[in-house]
Design brief:
128 residues, mainly alpha, two-stranded antiparallel ribbon, two-stranded antiparallel sheet, 4 helices, elongated
Length: 128
């Protein structure tokens, strides 16, 4: 049993019920009753007809229970260990003084510079 849906009201049309209108551009419109067909031809908007389900949905009529306001979830912040560094190491680095950190950075830079100069020296020795 195939149920059609009324083009104006949105109600179900059971077999052997309703009317069909075919416009000049070959579009098929199905109507539940002569009332809905008449309103369609008068170019009435189903959203403004108080008895249609579309109107009731738009105006939020007949909603059985009021939905409580959705609670938004707060993002919880927590620290995780990163690969290669434990949480204790990360916290120790964060809490150390700026001078100590600056000294450590300067030391690391100097070490990289030395390694780079050694690589250049090796490359020059290979080239000769």
């Amino acid at each position: 049993m195939k149920l059609e849906i009324c083009n104006l009201s949105g109600y179900k049309i059971y077999p052997s019920r309703g009317r069909t209108f075919i416009s000049s551009d070959s579009k098929t419109y199905r109507f539940l009753s002569s009332k809905t067909e008449s309103l369609f031809h008068q170019r009435k908007n189903a959203r403004q007809l108080a008895w249609t389900p579309i109107y009731r949905r738009l105006q939020r009529k007949g909603v059985s229970e009021e939905v409580a306001k959705k609670r938004t979830r707060r993002n919880l912040k927590f620290n995780r260990a990163v690969v290669g560094a434990s949480l204790e190491t990360i916290n120790a680095r964060r809490n150390e003084k700026a001078e100590i950190r600056a000294a450590a950075i300067a030391k690391a830079k100097a070490q990289r510079k030395d390694e780079a100069s050694k690589r250049k020296a090796r490359a020059a020795a290979k080239a000769n």
